[in-house]
Amino acid sequence: MTEAGPIALRARAEALAAPLPPLLAEAEHLAATVTMGEHGRRRPGAGSAFWQYRPALPFDPSGSIDWRRSARSDEAYVRETEWQIAQSVMLWVDPSASMDYASPKMAPKKERARLLALGSAVLLTRGGERVGLSGLRLPPRRHAGQLLRLAELLAQDDQADYGAPDIHGLPPQSRALFLSDFLGDPAPVEAALTGAAERGVRGVLMMVLDPAEEGFPFGGRTIFESMAGGLRHETRQARDLKDRYLERLAERKDRLAALARATGWLFEVHHTDASAASALLWLYGALERRG
């Protein structure tokens, strides 16, 4: 991707988000969290209650480091308050090779997923939320340069065939958005959502698929190969595989939907030939939902 890539991605995401209203925080939730919340009552101040220390990351300014806590170990630590945690939304976009797939005249799944993630970040930050990336890649913040930094990191690829959510760095009681085709081994996804739920994290799983993956328009002799080349299957009659493939895809969707229900998350399927604005509007409502 060229140097202008992240800037162009941000511009497109902002253009997509422009017709939609900012993500408005629920007044009752904010009042309960910032001033009257269960933890907030323990100490005076609007959202000043201590929540946790976390290891400092390369992007953290020196002024955010708690030097007294850091002096007791070999690592630097950042002190986070309850208000910061309550206002945090963490993003994960599958960077694997599988997301590079695109049928003719369609954008790659990865491009659409990144656009929706960054479009969501635009709305969230306009509404006063703090947005970051999971996997300890970028702490949640709301300052002016955060969107550009998000775009830069989202543009990074992975050579693995399939990806799985990384829940490292998810603050307890925060929210999260995971975008992927979820076509790899489902076990790591299940482990990630279970681990997130144990921390009180709620969020959204969005399955991004190319229309060819949904309709299976293949016939005759066909070679199926994963985008990274790790998997390969050749058949003389691809049409004979269609019913079995569609059945397995339906099973995967049902499994993800059941996982989302069990962990308090929401699940949605988005196709790259569908409206990006409609998908972002759905995400707007889903991420506004708390708890």
List keywords for this structure.
291 residues; alpha/beta; Rossmann fold; 2 domains; 6-stranded mixed sheet; two-stranded antiparallel sheet; 10 helices; DUF58
Q: Quick summary of this structure?
A:
The protein is an alpha/beta fold. Helices cover 38% and strands 18% of the residues. The chain has helices at 5-17, 27-34, 67-70, 82-86, 109-126, 146-154, 186-198, 211-215, 242-263, 276-288; strands at 50-55, 77-81, 88-93, 130-133, 138-141, 175-180, 202-209, 222-225, 232-235, 266-271.
Instruction: Give helix % range.
Output: 25-40%
Query: What structural category arises from helix and sheet content?
Result: alpha/beta
Spatial strand order of the main sheet: 5-4-3-6-7-10
Q: Mind describing the biggest β-sheet?
A: 6 strands, mixed
Determine the N-to-C terminus distance. Answer: 37 Å
CATH architecture annotation of the largest domain: 3-Layer(aba) Sandwich
Overall form: globular
Strand composition percent? 15-25%
Domain DUF58: 56-251
Pfam families: DUF58
InterPro entries: DUF58
